[in-house]
Amino acid sequence: MKKGRAFIFLGLFIFVIGTFFLSNALAGSFNFSISAGTYSIAQKTVNGIPQIPVNIIWSSDATSCEAKDGWLGTSVGTSGVLPVYPTATTTYSLVCTKDGVYSYKSVKIYVTNVITTTAEDCSCYAIEANSMSSYICMVQNTDTGCSVSYMREPGIDATCGLGGTYTESFCSPPLPSDPPDTEAPILTISYPGNSYSGNNIGIYREEQYPSNGFQVTLAASERSAGKAYAESVSGRWAMKTAIPEKIGKLVVKNAANVKEVADSVDFIFCAVDMKKDEIKALEYDYAKAEVPVVSNNSAHRWTDDVPMLLPELNDSHLKIIDTQKKRLGTKNGFIVVKPNCSIQSYVPALHPLLSYGPKEVVVCTYQAISGAGKTFETWPEMIDNVIPYIGGEEEKSEKEPLKVWGKIEGGKIVSAVKPVITAQCIRVPVTDGHMAAAFVRFEKKPSKEEILKRWKEFKGKPQELNLPSAPKQFIKYFEEDNRPQTKLERDIENGMGVTVGRLREDHLYDYKFVSLSHNTVRGAAGGAVLIAELLKAEGYLHSN
C-alpha cells in the first residue's frame, strides 16, 4: 500500500475580456455606458431580468472612489467588483479622488461575462467610455468559448461588427450549463494510511484528524501544470486561512495525463469547473484506470449505478459498486459522489424519522456565499443583501434526497417516491453555513418527545466504525428558541455535525424545525473525506 497519496483536481479558469486605461488628464467623473443586447447563456433571464451580471472590475491608485448613476451612489474601494444587470443603455459613473483631488492615474477597468451568440453578432454588450480616445467592444461565442475584442474609434456607433481595429483574440471556457458545486474549493486527498487528515484546499491541516504521513498530489488543467500550487492560485485564494505551507509548495500535475496521475495515487477526490459531459468523461477515465473516484461534482449524481452518499444515511448503497465495476470492466476503479450541500442540514434531520413515513416536506434554505465560491471581498454586492435565487439549487434540493433514500433494484438505485419535497433556495450574506427551515407532514405523526429521542440517539455507520472525521454526535438539538445560529454552531464537531432547533407543531403541517450544517466542510470536502474513510473501512480502496 502506498501511504497517503492524495490527488487534487483544480478547476482554474479566468474570464477577463477587455481593458480600459483611463487618461491621466481626465477630470471629474469617469462615465461609461453599457447597452443590453442579445441575451445568451451568460445573460440568462427570468421574466426578462438578467440573472448573471456583467461584472465591472476596477483598480486605481486613488485614495477613495464612489460609484454613481447606474450604481445609485455607492461608496466603493479603490479597487473592487460591482455587477450590473443592464436591460437598456445605462450610464455608470466612477468618481475617484486622491487626497481630495480628482485622480484617474493608472485606473483600469475590466469587464467580464460579456457573451453573445456568435462572434460576428453586433447586438453584444457594448461598452463606451466618454472622453476616451477609444473603447473596447467584446464578443464571446458561446459555442466555442472563443472571445474577440475590437478597439473602436470615437464617433463610431457602439456595435461589434467586423469593422474596426482587431486587437486581441483568446479563448475562455464557456460558462457551464450546470454550475459546479464550488462548496468544496477542490482539495482532493488520496489513500489514507491507518487514518488520515484533510479537508478542502483551504483547510487541509494535519492536526485536523490523526495522520500517518500520507502525501498529497495536486492536478489541474494544463495552464497550472508544472507550477507550485501557491503560484497557481495567486490572487484568487478565497479561504479564511492561509494556504498550508506544505500544500502551497506542491507542484501541480496535469490532470489530462490520466495514466501518469493514476499510477501515482490510490484514489482521487474530483472537484472541477468543466462542462458536465467533460467531467463525466474525466471521472470515467480515472475509474477505468483502476482509480476510485470520490466526486464533489454533480455530473454523475444521476448515473443509475453511482451511489450518492451521505455516509451516516445510506452506506448500504455501497453495494452497488460491484455492479458499477462490472459495467466499467474494472477491478478496483469506480465512482461515488456526494450530494449537493443544500440538502445536508434538513435531510439528516429527517432521516431518523423515516419510520414515521414523512410524506410532504416544505423547505427553504439560506445558503452562505462560500457556496458560490465567493467571499465578501470578491462579491461585495452581497453585503447587506439577500438574493432569492440560486441557479439549479431548488431542483437538486427536491430530487437528490430521494436518491439518497432510494433502494437498489435490478442493478440500479431507484429513487424513493416520498416524501414529496418543495424547496426555495436563498443566498444570504453569511460566509459559511447553510441553514434550512423545514415543514413536514407524516403518515404516522410522532410525538415531539419521540422525534427528539430519535435525533439524540441516531448513529450511522461512521459513528459505529469510529471513523477519524466522523462527528461523535451527528445531530445535536438545541432547546433555546434562538438556536442554532450560523456563527455559533456551524463549526460544531469540526464542521461535521448537524444542528437542529425550534421543533414545534404546526397548524398546516405536523412539525416544523430549523437545521444547520457547514457547507464547505460537512457539505463538501469534509463529507468527501468521510466517504473515503468509509470506503477504506469497508474494503473498497486498494493500492494500485
Keywords:
544 residues, alpha+beta, Rossmann fold, Dihydrodipicolinate Reductase, domain 2, 3 domains, 6-stranded antiparallel sheet, 6-stranded mixed sheet, 11 helices
Commentary on this structure:
By secondary structure, the chain is of the alpha+beta class. It folds into 3 domains: 5-12 and 181-339 and 527-537, Rossmann fold; 17-171, no CATH class; 341-519, Dihydrodipicolinate Reductase, domain 2 (2-Layer Sandwich). The protein contains 11 helices and 29 strands. α4 (276-288) links the parallel β19 (268-270) and β20 (293-295). The longest helix is centred in the last third of the chain and has 17 residues, at 521-537. The model is unreliable at 8-52 and 103-214 (pLDDT under 50).
CATH fold-level label of the largest domain: Dihydrodipicolinate Reductase, domain 2
Q: Could you name the CATH class of the largest domain?
A: Alpha Beta
Fraction of residues in helices? 10-25%
Question: In whole angstroms, how far apart are the ends?
Answer: 8 Å
Low-confidence stretches: 8-52, 103-214
Number of helices: 11
Number of strands: 29
Radius of gyration: 25 Å
Q: Which quaternary structure do these chains form?
A: single chain
Question: What is the correct CATH architecture of the largest domain?
Answer: 2-Layer Sandwich
